[in-house]
Known about the structure:
Oligomer: single chain
Number of helices: 1
Strand content: 35-45%
Largest sheet: 9 strands, antiparallel
Distance between the termini: 60 Å
Helix content: 10-25%
Radius of gyration: 23 Å
Amino acid sequence: MIKRRESLSTSLIVLSLALLTAVFPAPVPNLEKQVVGSGERADEFRLTLAATEDENGVDGQATFVDTYKNAKLKLDIIDISIVSTDRIAQLVGVVTSTTGGTFAHFPTGEKVTFFVEDNGEGNDSIPDGFSLPNEKPGKPKPGGSTFPEVVHGNFRVTGTSDKGEVIEVPK
């Protein structure tokens, strides 16, 4: 009789835990970070970017183009940090090629840092922005972007920030 009660008690505990897990599942953190898009600034610099970080590491490429001087800089992305809930991503890339001109001072193999700012979607949102390689962010403009604004294009920054905040695609 005692063994039967222990068996029944154990079964109830297991059933209760299973029910609690089904009703209140443990949150699964979004370990993936993604920064994608393309845009052109008024100063004729263009950026095309696709980079993802997940449990397998970082994979991605970026290309900067100076459309005025017809110069290109290509990077393999090696690090993505989402630095705030403002959807600003800091990316680190390794130079894989350059056509010179504006980007001649970046030798192949050099690491560079740049930023991408996602200010939301739609006509009512502030334009997105991006920095050039090794360009420091400025002070945010009231009602504007922290970086020179994109006049054509769109960037999307999603994932978990370095502070653990989940950054999702705006609705």
